[in-house]
Amino acid sequence: MAKGRATIADIARSAGVSLSTVSRVLSGRESVIPIGPETRARVLASAAALNYRPNQAARTLASGRSQAVAVLVHDISDPYFSEIVRGIEDVASANQYMVLVCSTDRDPVREREYLLRMGSFPTDGIILAAGGFEEEAGLDEVRSLIERGVVIVGVARHGLPIPTVRISNEEGAREMAEHLLQLGHRRIAFIAGPPGLTTANDRLAGYRQALREAGLSADGLVLAGDFTREAGQRVVPHLLRSTPRVTAVFAANDKMAIGCLAGLRAAGIVVPDEVSVVGFGDVPSAQDTEPPLTTVTIPLREIGRQVMREVLQQLGGQPPSAALSAPTTLTIRRSAAPPRSGKPG
Amino acid sequence: MAKGRATIADIARSAGVSLSTVSRVLSGRESVIPIGPETRARVLASAAALNYRPNQAARTLASGRSQAVAVLVHDISDPYFSEIVRGIEDVASANQYMVLVCSTDRDPVREREYLLRMGSFPTDGIILAAGGFEEEAGLDEVRSLIERGVVIVGVARHGLPIPTVRISNEEGAREMAEHLLQLGHRRIAFIAGPPGLTTANDRLAGYRQALREAGLSADGLVLAGDFTREAGQRVVPHLLRSTPRVTAVFAANDKMAIGCLAGLRAAGIVVPDEVSVVGFGDVPSAQDTEPPLTTVTIPLREIGRQVMREVLQQLGGQPPSAALSAPTTLTIRRSAAPPRSGKPG
DNA sequence: TTGTAAGCGTTATCAC
DNA sequence: GTGATAACGCTTACAA
Q1: pLDDT digits (tens, 9 = 90+) for A98-116
Q2: Which residue in A133, B72, B96, B171 is deepest, having the highest Cβ count within 10 Å?
Q3: Can A8-54 and A63-167+300-327 be said to share one CATH topology?
Q4: CATH entry, B8-54, from 1.10.260.40, 1.10.1670.10, 3.90.1570.10, 3.40.640.10
Q5: How would DSSP label each residue in B13-24?
Q6: What b-and-e string marks burial along A27-57, b requiring 16 or more CB atoms within 10 Å of the CB?
Q7: Does the pLDDT of residue A31 top 90, yes or no?
Q8: Whole-number pLDDT of residue B341
Q9: What pTM was computed for the model?
Q10: Smallest CA–CA separation between A113 and chain B, in Å?
């Protein structure tokens, strides 16, 4: 970012025109402010000859547009989030935008820190994809960012005053629980996610609702979890001790389901013969477990594309879209089957 | 990025000092240029009162430093790369740096495009983590970026004039092949990676060397692949047709190994009883396949940290480190076992 | 259709 | 220790 890189002044001189003319043709504002074709050609030629590269920092300072968006995720190394980010990047790069990643580890402190830094870092938009908290931390930061003209869009339910791509967590979980019920299961445990997370709570609510509608109680069936693989493993002893024994386990996300699978195998329990296990999310590795995981599919990448498209539209001056949403679907693989001694009802 | 955000001018006015004084205390150059403690306090107080946030775009323009690095990866949704990026982010964020992700899909065209865009986008450093090609495309772009003072560091072998964190792909592959040999295998197939990739070639070379040293020929044992899961599945019929039948398969990366596992299962072949399968990389999901994958572990996250530390050091004026490297280790799980009819030699 | 000139918010170079 | 003032490279009214 230093040396003798050519500026529009050099081009202006070389092409024998003014600074503004150069700026006009080079910044694409041509469409708005017509330029003589011959002038234009000269400018372009000089730019090419001098190997000109615009200085985005200068553009940003002058125009207020940075051509960059930041994405807050829980953890970029978590496939759930990296899929979303990939979707975002797809449409961002197609529109000459760069994407910054910010992993918050679901830590409200880190989340606020990043938000604070976004206060000085030049981005045109911020995508809150880390998942919402029931009690949001960065409210003030978000407000002041919005006030400054930054477009902010969220993914999943947030307690924040921003447009959001809704994921049908509750409906998806209900459907999955109904699927298990239909298979004949009556004792279905649920491994919950982190307490304050809206995503986790919505999935739990969907599970509860399905049970309630089937006239079943969830008492003693909801196990604490935190979305980690270890949590899925940890509950296994508890599962085995339950009486009457649980016949199916619904984990609030795939990672826990996969951990549970591992724990069950270690305990010598065979899935789905002795117990069914299902997850939520359908991360890529869910198809490579044994048995492959029955789960709720979220169109992660498409969500990323959708949220970035929304950011771009708002940046283009359009009002926030009213209803952004991503439908979940059941993906039946082989980790769930009817219970062995399936006495219905 | 717009509205009425406070500037150092506002602070100067409010604190009754000059612009330069404000800049000095706010940009941390204090250590170099002493400031009166009382003046300093007044400035800080005003800054806080006005809820001041530095404008990084302006700083970048004036100082030439952007506090951002870009990372070129094959695909951010590939766990191999997202792990590396996470490592980079860990040390970046601890040092007030932001990280931009650029997925190139291993397409030289996209790679050059991104490099070209980096020519105008303000970043202090660029990390080439997408893997090297035997014939590099973006050489000119890299040169001109370096000339402009951007620090560029690579991961894995590159044909580019930049310091690089070496991954012991060849040694790791040799070790793994030796392990298979030691188990008693003599007919070991290798699923290769994309032809032009140094990473793929080095692993192949390691495999070849081990066979050669054992007095074995690799003729007809090297199968074409491209690092995708599908490639791993695709070779299965070929594997089964081989005579004498191959007893072990070494995939050049985990994804292909996992695909191979799936293909084998579909064909009713049991691993490792009938055939052993091993991979390279040790991505997180490698431990959740059935059987869990024996593979070569690369300290992905640590590599990310290391490469970002190197970038920071060079930005701090230190010369490139001579030997950056990441050792691979064998991780024995359960997908490889002695061949069934293991007649040694 | 093109040119002039005033910013954009900081840092940096000199003086004092 | 502190203060003027000139960059930094570009966009954008406003004129012509």
Answers
A1: 999 999 999 989 999 999 9
A2: B72
A3: no
A4: 1.10.260.40
A5: HHHT--HHHHHH
A6: eeeeeeeebeeebbebbbebbeebebbbbbb
A7: no
A8: 66
A9: 0.96
A10: 10
